[in-house]
Amino acid sequence: MKVIIKEDYAAMGKEAAKYFAEVIRNKPNAVLGLATGSTPISTYKELIRLHEEEGLDFSQVTTFNLDEYLGLTGDHKQSYRYFMDTNLFNRLNIKKENTNVLSGVADNPEAECREFEEKIKAAGGIDIQLLGIGGNGHIAFNEPGSSENSRTRVVDLTKETIEDNSRFFEKVEDVPTQALSMGMGTILEAKKIVIIANKESKAKGVAVSIEGPVITDVPASILQKHSDVIWVIDKSAASLLKNSY
Ligand code: GLP
User: Fold this and answer.
1) For the chain, what is the mean pLDDT?
2) Measuring CA to CA, which residue among 130, 127, 129 is closest to residue 60?
3) Pocket test for ligand 1, best of 80, 160, 164, 182 (most atoms within 8 A of CB)
4) With a 6 A CB cut-off, is 67 part of the ligand 1 pocket?
5) Is the pTM of this model over 0.85?
6) What is residue 168's predicted lDDT score, i.e. its pLDDT?
7) Does the structure show a pLDDT above 90 at 80?
8) Quick check: CB of 140 below 6 Å from ligand 1?
9) How confident is the model over 86-129, as pLDDT tens digits?
10) Distance 96 CA to ligand 1 centre (A)
11) pLDDT confidence of residue 35
12) How confident is residue 135, by pLDDT bands cut at 50, 70 and 90?
């Protein structure tokens, strides 16, 4: 596990984007795993800059997103499909049909999850996965207690996550209580993982995930078992780490 500490949020994003650009340059038809939330925005800004100014080519790239709220259509402003389209995909030369975001309104959400897993397999697996970390240490929507073998499935969101994410909705009652989420086992199969965090509010989760024991109560700690994980964090998110990196 590598830990890279950057001065601020913008530098964190530039550093994280570098790994994605490297994978795409080496393998133009790379398969990317992508994340939502406020954390990845500086990473996506840098990927857009690399595309516009340095010709980084997404024409053969395929993407899979970590999760989606159950019950939200792709054109709902708080859906993760909408987030990805507006913050990244619409600004790149990526083919929309190669961008996979779970549907929050599938007739059969369990079948939607199974098909998603099959699509990842058919694409040859995820070459590089971007992750953020929730205030409670969750990754994607794998809440504390999620098994490390879990696959893409329908999950219940914890009260804490609903409250954390209510900042994007008008009121807390509008936040869906369930989501479709890639599983821990699915995430751990990615060949390379880049996990990003900024702000002091993430410092505790970051410290226990990197320096604490591997426990299912802190889903991000399970990443210690993966052979190619890079934490890219800003100084505030690194503030509770005891070791120097
Ligand atoms: C949501 C997402 C996670 C994300 C987390 C943190 O719960 N499912 O993938 O890591 O939010 O969000 P933010 O980056 O806004 O702090």
Assistant:
1) 97
2) 127
3) 164
4) yes
5) yes
6) 92
7) yes
8) yes
9) 999 999 999 999 999 999 999 999 999 999 999 999 999 999 99
10) 23
11) 98
12) confident
Find out whether the beta carbon of 134 lies less than 6 Å from any atom of ligand 1.
yes
Question: Which residue minimizes the CA distance to atom 5 of ligand 1?
Answer: 134
Q: Atom of ligand 1 at shortest distance to CA of 40?
A: 14
